Amino acid sequence: QVQLVQSGAEVKKPGASVKVSCKASGYTFSTYGISWVRQAPGQGLEWMGWISTYNGNTKYAQNLQGRVTMTTDTSTTTAYMELRTLTSDDTAVYYCVRPYRGGTYLPFDYWGQGTLVTVSS
Amino acid sequence: QSVLTQPPSVSAAPGQRVTISCSGSSSNIGKNYVSWYQQLPGTAPKLLIYDNDKRPSGIPDRFSGSKSGTSATLDITGLQTGDEADYYCGTWDSSLSGGVFGGGTKLTVL
Asked: Are strands A92-99 and A68-73 parallel, antiparallel or unpaired?
């Protein structure tokens, strides 16, 4: 069965960086891209970006350009999301998600369990 | 401020029907498929509807979706207390070249 298992909760100070991992299993990793979606406490969903697990191409949300980097390690079928220069506004649960069909960005069929990132001094 | 607009909350009695709207523009809903997600408290969202009106395997036919122009609608019939959740619409925005979501609608089953 398809599974996306994320790394554990993180607490970071303002200005620091965080790197969240997402281990995929149960399907052919290179067939489906991975997106990252975040959700601030009590708020809605925000799409952060997408990475092709086939060739590493990326597409980032305009408001995060320059601060976010998404990568993959095909040998371990793991995707990573690094966010730099953190502020309290980055406090959120971060999800890795897989689309319903290969070769598409949306819709999101499989979700990781979420990783809480707390930014606090 | 979300790109797609949803009502913050809706409510109805058990057994009744509720409709949740999602309004967008020509660059997102008007041009791309819409999907809907259900988020139960403390859990990750779950795909309910994709490609405007299709249900993934295992989603009951009490949930249905439609799209017209730059708006989409999620209908839930035969409401159950277990349907209490936050519901989000989502799509691709061709101008932003990115995914976009509505702000979410909290469903209360009275």
From this structure: unpaired
| Residues facing A66 on adjacent strands | none
**Chain A window 32-91: which residues touch B at a Cβ cutoff of 8 Å?**
35, 37, 44-47, 49-50, 59-62
The amino acid occupying position A50 is W
Q: How many CA atoms are closer than 13 Å to the CA of A13, on its beta-carbon side?
A: 1
Give CA–CA dist A112/A94, Å, rounded: 9
Residue A92 pLDDT? 98
Does the beta carbon of A113 lie under 8 angstroms from any beta carbon of chain B?
A: yes
Contact A59 B97 (CB under 8 A): yes
Phi first, then psi: give them for residue B94, nearest 5 degrees. -70, -25
Phi-psi region of A29 (alpha: psi -120 to 50; beta: other; left: phi over 0): alpha
Question: Which pLDDT does position B24 carry in this prediction?
Answer: 97
Assign B82 to helix, strand or coil: helix
Look over chain B and give the mean of its residue pLDDT values, rounded to a whole number.
96
3-state secondary structure A34-64: EEEEEECCCCCEEEEEEECCCCCCEEECHHH
Chain B residue with Cα closest to A99: B47
In a mutational test of the A interface, the residue from B36, B47, B74 whose CB has the highest number of chain A CBs within 10 Å is B47
Helix (H, G, I), strand (E, B) or coil at A30: helix
Q: Which of A44, A61, A106 lies nearest to residue B35, judging by beta carbons?
A: A106
Which tokens sit at A13?
């100070």
Give me the percent of chain A exceeding a pLDDT of 90: 95
